[in-house]
Amino acid sequence: MVPSADSQSIDAAVSALRRGEVIGMPTETVYGLAADARNAEAVARIFAIKGRPADHPLIVHVASAATLPDWSRGSLALAEPLAAAFWPGPLTLILSRHPSVLDVVTGGQDSVGLRCPAHPLAQRLLAGFGGGLAAPSANRFGRISPTRAQHVRDEFGMQVPLVLDGGECAVGIESTILDLSSGLPTLLRPGQVTHAQLEKIVGCVAEKSSRNSPRASGTLESHYAPRTRMLLLPRSALVHEADEQRALGKVVSVLAISSMPSGATGLLLPEDPAAYAHGIYAALRELDGSGAHLLLVEKPPISLAWVAVQDRLRRAAASPDIDDYP
Ligand code: TXA
Ligand code: MG
């Protein structure tokens, strides 16, 4: 992956951020919609553009772990070793917020999400800007996350005129979120940094108890959803369903793993979970735009290595009716 933005575009992005504008920013996970985390009007603009409810907090992206005391208060006894192990990288830490952190960023909560992204352009942008960037994934609320600059343009057009093109996101799914703000460290969202890796650093890590926690919009059941109806099925059931639907005259698109069932059309993703994660959102976007009546997605193996992908697919398939989204 070769980032294509030159230093002139980084300078333009830094100037736009200083003016309080919202820009598209590549990270190694997915693209973000970024604004100055210390500018309440700029952050409010993110919510307006995205159509996101005001009580859903944003992650603040920072240049390094040295900035943790600027954004959080209380002990860093767990955060510091975690940051040393995984930053820059796809891990978001939820910590008690510093009193200076804006309410609009935290959704009024007493905690703040912090992450140091590894993408070289995000790093250069943060170094040039010199502050924190509040950034959710650069998709409309409830929609599929973007993993290419073009996805951000498709989603927002000239509402977000400046999108730094950092190529395809290497990881492809959102960061792991670990809550350190109350009691036992708790995994709120699975990602490339795994439960087992986190436990090696901090001991026991709990899994979040409620799937529908209102604290994290990425934890709502019907999130990351295509517009087309989508079913997640084991391969044999998928083949059967595809045949039945085609017999009813429906156009069916299949997202299969490593080989296409005979007679089916659609896209293939690799059997390796990291490679699958890298391609999942681009594939769902493409199939969603293919004009099919129904998307049939082959269920990946039930194993620890597939937990984060299973989570995203389950949410995408849970979409009840896309018109319900704000
Ligand atoms: O990989 C990522 O994390 C990407 C890139 C752009 O960095 N960002 C991302 O942001 O996925 P977003 O806003 O789409 O998802 C962040 C999740 C949301 O579900 C939000 O509710 C949760 O993090 N979150 C943020 N601050 C929180 C807090 N203080 N407590 C609990 N959850 C929080
Ligand atoms: Mg998101």
- Counting DSSP H or I runs of 4 or more residues, the number of helices is 11
Ligand catalogue = threonylcarbamoyladenylate, magnesium ion
Overall pLDDT metric: 92
Structural class: alpha/beta
**Strands, total number:** 13
Order of helices and strands: HEEHEHHEHEHEHEEHEEHEEHEH
Shape call = globular
- Order of adjacent strands in the largest pleated sheet: 1-2-6-3-5-4-7-8-9
Low-confidence stretches: 211-217, 320-326
How would a crystallographer describe the biggest sheet? Answer: 9 strands, mixed
Distance between the termini: 35 Å
Radius of gyration: 20 Å
Strand content: 15-25%
The helix content, as a percent range, equals 25-40%
Walk me through this protein's architecture.
The chain is 32% helix and 17% strand. The strands form 2 sheets. The chain has a 9-stranded mixed sheet with strand order 1-2-6-3-5-4-7-8-9, sandwiched between helices. A 4-stranded parallel sheet has the order 10-13-11-12, with helices on both faces. The two termini are 35 Å apart. The chain contains 11 helices and 13 strands. A hairpin with a 6-residue loop joins strand 7 (176-179) and strand 8. The protein is globular. Helix 1 (7-18) packs across helix 6. The protein is an alpha/beta fold. The chain binds threonylcarbamoyladenylate and magnesium ion (MG). Threonylcarbamoyladenylate is lined by residues 27, 29-30, 32, 56-59, 90, 92, 94, 106, 109, 111-113, 115, 117, 135-137, 174-175, 177, 188, 215-218.
